[in-house]
Amino acid sequence: MTEAAARHTPGTPCWVSLMVHQLPTSQEFYGALFGWEFRPGPQQLGPYVRALLDGREVAGLGQLPPERHLPTAWTPYLATDDAGATAQVISSSGGTVAVGPLDAGDAGRMAIASDPAGAVFGLWQAADHLGAAIAGAPGTPVWNELVTRETSSIVKFYQAVFGYDAEAVVSADFDFTTLLLDKKPVASLHGVGNALPRDRGAHWMTYFEVEDADEAASLVRDLGGHVLQQPRETVNGRAAVVADPEGAVFTVVRSGN
């Protein structure tokens, strides 16, 4: 387990958040699955809580307005020193800014955007709230991967916005790009072609560390969620793709490192 950096380099995934229809039920699910406790967070977009692990913040959960019949999905937030300027670059590079930038109390400024393929992500300009306080321990987000149709055009968008370096692995049956900042991998893009889920389209996938991927997948099922891909060995470790009771998809992984 490592303490998170004091201030994240722009472009680094620094936070994950989930907007749900039934906040108390979701708190019960994730509390039982990851051992999270909760305390209130900024309320600018409605009821919102921060998930804590050993007293330190690791993720956020918010309540969607009753009239918003949106699908629930985990959203990664990418650090920026200027949410307004980054939002302008997103718009001029073919992306869309759907919410903000707006102030989240004293915590910072945020925006919600999507890339040219429609994958949703957030921007976070930190003030009092820097982002996740720990990384690597069970119950913390450890990786973010964009699942999209193909990576070659989309990677140019993210490079234009955040200045990433990119390392691509492209073969006849594999399309994978790693995004790097200061020579360190920070996220990845996975092109899956026609295997992209029609009901979801391009999307960011959050990986949460667990002590045992098989046990975690079984617990997800016991708590009313669903196992979409059974636990299997991957390049990232033993992992399973699961969904919470509202359908928000995420991956549980026992990292190989």
Automatic annotation (TrEMBL):
InterPro entries: Anthracycline_SecMetBiosynth, Glyas_Bleomycin-R_OHBP_Dase, Glyas_Fos-R_dOase_dom, Glyoxalase_6, VOC_core. SUPFAM superfamilies: Glyoxalase/Bleomycin resistance protein/Dihydroxybiphenyl dioxygenase. Pfam families: Glyoxalase (PF00903), Glyoxalase_6 (PF18029). This is VOC domain-containing protein. Residues 12-126, 140-255 form the VOC domain. It comes from Streptomyces finlayi.
